[in-house]
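Lay summary. Proteins are chains of building blocks that fold into shapes, and those shapes determine what they do. In this project we predict the shape from the chain. Here is one chain we studied, written as its sequence of building blocks.
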Amino acid sequence: MQEDRRDFLKLAAAGLATAALDPRAALAQAPAASAGPEDRVFITNEDSNTIAVIDPRTNVLDTTINLTSFNEDPRPPFRFATGGIAPPHAAMIHKPLYHGCIDAHGCVPSPDGSYLATAGRGSSNLYLIDVRRKAVIGNSPNPQAGTDTSAMRLSNGVLLGREPHEPTFTRNGVELWVALRGEDRIAILDVKRTLKYLAEGGESPIIGFLPTVNGPAQVWFDPTGETAFIASQKESKVDVIRMDLGKGGYSRPDRLSLVDISGEDKPGFTPFLKTTPDGREVWFSHKLADALSARGTSHPFARLDLVPLGAMARPNHVEFVENAKGKVVYASLARVDDIASGVPSSRIAIIDRSVPPGDRKVIDTFFSHGREAHGLWTNPANDLLYVAHEQDELPHTPNAGQTCCSAFDVSDPLKPKFIAQIPLGMLLLPPAGELRNKKSINLVYVRPGFRGQTG
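And here is the predicted shape, written in a compact code that computers can read:
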């Protein structure tokens, strides 16, 4: 059933009373009983090339991980600001001798939550982050460290290829697969060799490249670790790969099927996919088709659902929440011109996954408390949800001029309750000034040592 935008908005009307966007409540911050002492939320900020870190116990910014190379040298071409004036975000990465990240984008935890992998789309490289230390692996002491220069020099990461969009660890943690969206292949890295390479240099950790669909957006593995699904942002196809794990858990990948999804995604623009916790389904976000779809994860990978979201919904990510009170799929919608309490906001769509395949549809929405919702992730207890946003809050709102993350209590997944709108603040770059965390893309909730969603 196709729904136009007006009908879609009517669908959500019944749920607005409990989820209305009230600017006066935007600073409310309640600690989460289910958040552990080491739990952290990591958000990649594409324009500022930073990773914002939130403590979910307090819902405030803990720290910002710096992926820029500013202030490593006291001379003007290396500095964040020149003549006391900070350049626009787009101009920063074109400063002479800048060697930092460009367009920080993908972010995914290792199966045990020890590491994060994030890609620099524009700099064509990959970084690993130590979750407990909240530090880039491979950074080295800066020989020019001083009162007006940084103490550390940023690692160059691992050079991969054109437009690395999203990295994903294999389920056994042995390999790291990175979709090269500007090409038609996947870069496959040995994780142990990557850690050694970043720390010591030497042999490249890239095992090889897997030919695949044109413009691969992302890889996701089923929970058994035996099958990989690859979506495209240039073709209406999904590549299904048999992993054929061999000695040491290394893959010997081979194509199982090339699935035609033109019925669901005629424009050929599927930026995100994820398998359900039970591993039986894989869900896709079709951004230009304004729809989600689901397929079985076993042959013949048949379509189970096609869920229209309404005109210009522009879905980004999906997330699954399952607990005693419900079983849902959430989808972040990039559209920003829906209004609640006079403030533009995106919505999150709620799909009830407890009903049989073929009958799943949007049953409600709630406001995301931010503009252009993107990354979504839940905590291990499946009772908290965090949402990243690409655009800043507008004037006359509590966090005007800042990019914000939102937190929700989803102990009842069908009735999310707003907890906090969390401003992401600034990265201090003394003595030059402050670099604003800007344009949040991927978001993950990580508990070190806990077998998480990629495990």
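What the prediction tells us: DSSP finds four helices and 35 strands in the chain.
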